[in-house]
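FORM 12-B: Structure-to-Sequence Request
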């Protein structure tokens, strides 16, 4: 069954206190129409040390290319500016009044997951079930749930599963390096700091998730009390 257009397009609409409005949509399936590439999107411009792409074969960093348009739109705004954000997707609308850096962090997360970066590709499943402004426990729930479901689906296709989460830990270690590399790029691109700070907030969430994966302290146990009861 084909998906409806509202199921493949996540729209973020920012409204600032002075009445200015900015909108950016993230396509989950369709090929993006990208603006003329800026110099900071070149693959060799602050390329992540662990990037598997070759500059002889790929000219542009896919994550940076996907970020160029929203960075251009938000670059003149400071991270602490209050903003009302309306997220439209799957026929739903989620609205929140927050700071631009937190709103940008939510948008950057889904952009990264769908950008085509080799180190974020396993996060795309989460993008299909995007939850704006997730907290640490919500993120951990979604990360573990999507990864373990992915492993179950692998077994259904005759593939080996990673039930001890070693691959997921590696994904998040790589993601932290990607976030650092993108922050370096954005510092060279943004007139203000909203996009950079949004990425920093996103990285803090990634660090929190990685810590829980490396040393689980029971953060989700209370939500699964019924599962933990002895029959």
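FORM 12-B RESPONSE
SEQUENCE OUT:
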């Amino acid at each position: 069954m084909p998906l409806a257009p509202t199921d493949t397009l996540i729209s973020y609409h920012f409204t600032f206190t002075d009445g200015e409005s900015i909108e950016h949509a993230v396509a989950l399936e369709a090929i993006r129409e990208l603006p003329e590439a800026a110099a900071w999107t070149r693959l060799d411009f602050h390329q992540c040390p662990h990037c598997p792409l070759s500059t002889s074969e790929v000219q542009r960093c896919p994550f940076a290319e996907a970020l160029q348009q929203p960075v251009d739109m938000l670059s003149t705004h400071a991270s602490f500016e209050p903003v009302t954000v309306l997220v439209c997707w799957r026929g739903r609308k989620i609205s929140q009044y927050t700071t631009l850096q937190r709103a940008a962090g939510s948008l950057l997360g889904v952009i990264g997951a769908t950008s085509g970066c080799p180190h974020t590709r396993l996060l795309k499943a989460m993008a299909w079930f995007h939850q704006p402004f997730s907290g640490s426990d919500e993120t951990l729930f979604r990360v573990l749930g999507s990864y373990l479901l992915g492993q179950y689906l692998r077994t259904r296709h005759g593939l080996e599963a990673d039930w001890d989460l070693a691959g997921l830990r590696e994904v998040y270690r790589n993601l932290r390096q990607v976030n650092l590399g993108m922050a370096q790029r954005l510092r060279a691109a943004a007139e203000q700091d909203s996009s950079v700070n949004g990425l920093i907030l996103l990285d803090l969430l990634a660090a929190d998730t990685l810590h829980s994966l490396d040393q689980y302290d029971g953060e989700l146990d209370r939500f699964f009390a019924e599962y933990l009861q002895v029959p």
